[in-house]
Design goal:
This protein is mainly alpha-helical. The protein is about 55% helix and about 0% strand. It has three helices and no strands.
Length: about 90
Amino acid sequence: MKKPKKLKNETALLKKAIEVGEKYAMNRGYNGFSATNASKDKVESLYRLLVNDKLIQASPADGEDLLSMKHRLAMWIAKQLPEDHPLLK
């Protein structure tokens, strides 16, 4: 499988996606993440929640790795932000 094209500011977008995703998860009844949860665990949990809620499309089974999950989360938040948001410039 080919590597997804990296977005401009993808790392910052991922950080924002995790922040917004955590709030979304808590609104859905999730107790939240503790400070000891690893970033990769947060990414996978949020990715699976958003796929389950049909807010993002799942990666093909053979391409479902941490890198593609991070990319999908970054793309998701990029679509949620207003066009003039600093992270999209």
